[in-house]
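Journal club side-thread
Mid-discussion, someone asked how the predicted structure for our own chain would compare to the paper's figures. Pasting it here so we can look after the session.
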Amino acid sequence: MSAPELDGARLAVLAARVEGIATMMGNTIESAPAAPGVLNRARDFSCCILTGSCELLVMAESLPVHVMGADLLVRSIPQLQGRACAPATRSCTTRPYHGNSHAADHVIVVPVFDEAERIRYWMYCKAHQADINAPSRRRTKDRARRHEEGAIFPGVRIQRDRQDIRGTSCACAGSGSAARAVVRRLPRDAPGRPAASARSPRSRGRSAGTRSKAFDEAWLSYSERRMRAVIAGLPESETTGVSIHDPIPGTPPEGIRIQSTVRVRPGEQRIEVDLRDNPDNLPCGLNMTESTSRAAALIGVFDSLDPSIPKNGGSARCVDVLLREGCVAGIPRHPASCSVATTNVSDRIINATVQAFAQVAHGVGMAEFGSMFGANLAVASGFDSRLGRAHINQVFFGATAGAASPYTDGWLTYLHPGNGGLCHVDSVEVAEHYQPLVVWDRHLLPDSEGAGWRRGASSLEVSYGPVDDDLTVAFVCDGQVNVPKGVRGGGNGRAAGNLLERTDGAREELPAVSVVTLAPGERVIAITQPGGGYGPPAEREPERVAEDVREGWITAERGREVYRVALAATGEVDAAATAALRR
């Protein structure tokens, strides 16, 4: 049977339906943990669908850094198992050296077969686990070798014929408290049943299989054509962006300088991102994996171009990412640790890449995103006298971070560039319910944005502390030294900050790497990084500046001094005075 023609309307409907399957898979993952944590409170998980040839088809509401290198992991499963995949099997992997992001991310992979017993799709579910049996209590960023990261499973089969393989499924479930809940639910509603299997081509007959194959090819080809058309409209260029991670233990004293060289080839309709000229692997957990290095480069490309381009394996066909083995921003060399390969250096790769694109032409690229980690996203622990037991969890009180683009001002709750703005922020009431802490204040800081024709998001200040018992707060903060840079004449954002306030109101600055125990009445204060600005502030439309003042984003003084806009006593734009300021 020949493949049917698909017009634009059918293509859009089928894309939405297939994406709906990935969304259903995500709903299962979100409801799986027995206790609230980073997985479901912050929504630190992703589900996507790949074609049988391992091209990313749809990613639904996945974190981009989780899935844009998913093809590397899926290709490794038969290689690691030393045999072809069979129907009704599920595999689990956490191995950073074979396509995963880092050891804390458990990935469940399910092949879906057609009526000819060929793999038509790969269903891919990834979720961050808080407890993976790390052999030491060292902070993840301080773990210098892979063996210190915790339990690592290299693509082991955990189910056959929808039944647990006792040894391997128990081992994977035993790697963490949240993982146990996920594996317990596998036979009933893991990916492949009902979300994948009941809606797979095999269950609908040969015509459905032909139609789905036609969709796969049409969707990826359409995405590739869209990408090629955009690249063809860019000037031929070679530009380099640089973003610097603050120094922490295990890094050079000047920090980690990450550069990304972008080569635009409109005649060939291709883009090349070169990350090879970066430092070697470091003795800490900041090293990237091959998957996250490639994903970060792709995120930088997609962030810089027309936002309507579909993000999948079709559009990615036009991008070549050049990596070097043994590089902190490339392919890790054993036994380098990759504990935080989805953030930190990953964000610096994205920042360097969007900066490089911003040099190509107006309307392309972005400013730098702010850094995410600080006391606002600390691990809080102690004893809960309400329940008579110890407690520990990571708080997510917000990280603004959104960079300005040629399309819009910075996204206020972006968190960090690798997650695409999809992670959740804690409700104050929910956070206070689950742990014995009190949030005293959470507000935005006026005049903290990276100023520009399009401005970055503002900084957030949040303060919290214990209720009746001591509270230990641990964090590793990037961005206290290196600020988010503006591009094309845009202004820089401010530095991050972390303060300890004593019971008498005295304040002291906390170092970037801190473990501090708060007594009742004391509090920790976090100031997040904003985003950089895009374009000269004096070119921002006066009406936008007046609205920013009315809404409290900036003060009238900043509007006059930085944006060169004068306001009348009524708050309206004083056209004559503004023209004089901008002359």
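Post-session note: The chain is about 25% helix and 20% strand.
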